[in-house]
Please model this.
Amino acid sequence: MMKSDYLRSVYSQVLARDPDQKEFQQAVLEVLESLDLIVGDHPEYEANGIIESFVEPERIVCFRVPWTDDQGRTRVNRGYRVQFSSSIGPYKGGLRFHPTVNLSILKFLGFEQILKNSLTGLPLGGAKGGSDFDPKGKSDGEVMRFCQSFMTELYRHIGQFTDVPAGDIGVGGREIGFLFGQYRRIQASYAAGVLTGKGLAFGGSLGRTEATGYGLCYLTEEMLGHMRQDSFKGKTVVISGSGNVAIFACEKATALGAKVVALSDSSGYIHDPNGIRLEVVKDIKLGHRGRISEYADRVPGSTCHEGFRGIWNIPCDIALPCATQNEIDGDMAKTIVKNGAIAVAEGANMPCRPEAIHVFQEAGLLFAPAKAANAGGVATSGLEMSQNSIRSIWSFEEVDRKLQSIMAGIFHNIYDASAACGDKGNLAAGANIAGFLKVAGAMLAQGTI
Ligand code: NDP
Model:
């Protein structure tokens, strides 16, 4: 528990206000425990109510999303936008379409996004949004009608200088295209900077699709090099998920000389001891939105297993959880340690439960927290916004070079912050502190309390 009375009282207030928001409480506690290392040196935070403000979203929008299915029936989902912090830039954060979406999950994601965006060094505030709509099994027409209805309400709350959404689970290039089309029609103007992750033909950035997975590997490579004089070369890697983040993490880890032996989706995982053939995965997942189990039917020597959690029983040197929140608990973490892993880097948001992070840190594994490790996606969204503003298009190589430099910068920033707060190498604490100091400084300077 935290030593600071001030932080304990802020946390009690969070618990009392929203007793059912477990994911949000978990994210707040993890950050406050890190801030406990520095808050004693900053009496101005308590005097100005900075941390109370920091844990309360500036605004939450919640709305009805009616749409028509292919049978002509009206269906109704719920839409949200959590505009958490605009202290250092316009609200920025993805939209998630998944049946599990609720306010607790979006508040945790929006809260994490504030710190992640701060770490990128770009002027971006924090937000998150989405809906409990499930795109899985829906036709393109149904997804389009849902997206149009969603944007028919959301458009009044967003804009290139106010709030810039992007994709997340269940929201990829197809959905962003439909959302942007509806925004453009309603506004009757071409404000490309209102959404990121757009198609290349209408204001998207080269390298945005790959950015989160590539960025995860760039930061991991920097961490391995700096903290262990090691690299991906020759390592065995397990990656959970098989969506946008997992696929491009697999591609970059392989390019850096590692062998990725497993991937998963929500129904199961595949194990290929010879190294995942990514062209087959791309064909299944990007080609026809199929299930990962198809891989085992197509690639001799590979096997398929039901239940996505079993993937963490496969021995690896480096674990990259890239599916969803809270997928690794304390027991799974112990298995990963027992199997000899040297590093864990979070591609998904909060995939490791607090007790799992504790197990990794106690065992001396390198641990890169999501808000640093997966910041490459939003950083490249920031680069997309820059290109939209200056009406220019940068080459893939230029964007990738900028991404590499941002990820290396993030690693050194959080490593240095961990050393400065007296817990050298605790990158989770370093990320929380480095991200927060910048936002808190802006809040104090602007009097936004
Ligand atoms: P996708 O929708 O492209 O892929 C998600 C993957 O995770 C799929 O393989 C999906 O399987 C699996 N998955 C989803 N929910 C569950 C669940 N409850 N249990 C098990 N598996 C699940 O999403 P992304 O790759 O974009 O996002 C993955 C993670 O990365 C998320 O935590 C997201 O917030 C985070 N992230 C994404 C960024 C981006 O740029 N896309 C940026 C930063 C973070 P199935 O298809 O069966 O549902």
In short: The pocket of NDP is lined by residues 167-170, 212, 241-246, 265-267, 308, 322-324, 347-349, 374, 377 (CB under 6 Å).
